[in-house]
C-alpha cells in the first residue's frame, strides 16, 4: 500500500466516490472543497499497486481556538475490500503526524455511536469518548465525539 498527499482537483472525484460509498453522511462538493482547498497538506490517499483509484482517504483540518491549535478528522474511509489491513490506522497516523508538525495540540472527530470498528480504531490510537451527540447525523444516528 502506498500513501500520498492530496494533490488537487483531479483527486476530488475519487475522494467523493470513496466517501459516498463508505460513509452514511451525504456530503456536498462544497464540503469537500472547503477542507481540501484550505488544508490540502492534511489529506492523504491510499493506493494498491494494482489500482489507479484510491482505496482509502482521510480528510482533516486545523484551526486556532483560544490559545491552542486544534486538529479535526472530518472524514476517513477505506474500501470494504481492504479493511482490517491497517490502512485506516496508517492514514490516521500520517495525518496526526502532519497536524503535529503544524503545531496541533489536540485532535477531535465524531463517529456514529454504533460504529464499533471505527471506535476501536480510534481508541487504539489514544482517542477517548468525550461526549455523546444525540441525533448528530442526518440519518438520525447518535455520534460520539472523540
UniProtKB/TrEMBL annotation:
<keyword id="KW-0012">Acyltransferase</keyword>
<protein>
    <submittedName>
        <fullName>Acyl-CoA N-acyltransferase</fullName>
    </submittedName>
</protein>
<dbReference type="GO" id="GO:0031417">
    <property type="term" value="C:NatC complex"/>
</dbReference>
<dbReference type="InterPro" id="IPR044542">
    <property type="entry name" value="NAA30-like"/>
</dbReference>
<comment type="similarity">
    <text>Belongs to the acetyltransferase family. MAK3 subfamily.</text>
</comment>
<dbReference type="GO" id="GO:0004596">
    <property type="term" value="F:protein-N-terminal amino-acid acetyltransferase activity"/>
</dbReference>
<feature type="domain" description="N-acetyltransferase">
    <location>
        <begin position="1"/>
        <end position="146"/>
    </location>
</feature>
<dbReference type="Pfam" id="PF00583">
    <property type="entry name" value="Acetyltransf_1"/>
</dbReference>
<keyword id="KW-0808">Transferase</keyword>
<dbReference type="InterPro" id="IPR000182">
    <property type="entry name" value="GNAT_dom"/>
</dbReference>
<dbReference type="InterPro" id="IPR016181">
    <property type="entry name" value="Acyl_CoA_acyltransferase"/>
</dbReference>
Amino acid at each position: 500500500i502506498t500513501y500520498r498527499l492530496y494533490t488537487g482537483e483531479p483527486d476530488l472525484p475519487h475522494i467523493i466516490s470513496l466517501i459516498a460509498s463508505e460513509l452514511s453522511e451525504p456530503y456536498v462538493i462544497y464540503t469537500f472543497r472547503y477542507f481540501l482547498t484550505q488544508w490540502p497538506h492534511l489529506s492523504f490517499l491510499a493506493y494498491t499497486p494494482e489500482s489507479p483509484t484510491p482505496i482509502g482517504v482521510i480528510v482533516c483540518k486545523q484551526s486556532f481556538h483560544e490559545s491552542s491549535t486544534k486538529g479535526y478528522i472530518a472524514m476517513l474511509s477505506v474500501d470494504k475490500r481492504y479493511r482490517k489491513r491497517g490502512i485506516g490506522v496508517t492514514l490516521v497516523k500520517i495525518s496526526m503526524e502532519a497536524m503535529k508538525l503544524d503545531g496541533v495540540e489536540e485532535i477531535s472527530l465524531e463517529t456514529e455511536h454504533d460504529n464499533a470498528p471505527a471506535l476501536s480504531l480510534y481508541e487504539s490510537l489514544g482517542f477517548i469518548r468525550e461526549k455523546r451527540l444525540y441525533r448528530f447525523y442526518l440519518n438520525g444516528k447518535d455520534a460520539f465525539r472523540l
